[in-house]
Design a protein that fits this description.
Elements (H helix, E strand, L loop, with lengths): L1 H18 L7 H23 L3
């Protein structure tokens, strides 16, 4: 689930950069949120496998 959210947010971030209709630096929050989702996905994967 975290991977899906991360990918969706990453795609929205790229689309915001391509269209150029960014409202200041708010579009970069999507990148931050997607990276947090990827980190949570990796952490939950390690927890399921007993690595963390």
């Amino acid at each position: 689930m975290y991977w899906t959210m991360g990918i969706i947010l990453m795609v929205l971030w790229v689309m915001g950069l391509i269209t150029g209709s960014t409202e200041g630096s708010w579009v970069h929050l999507l990148l931050v949120f997607s990276l947090v989702a990827f980190v949570l996905g990796v952490a939950s994967l390690g927890r399921r496998r007993g690595l963390a």
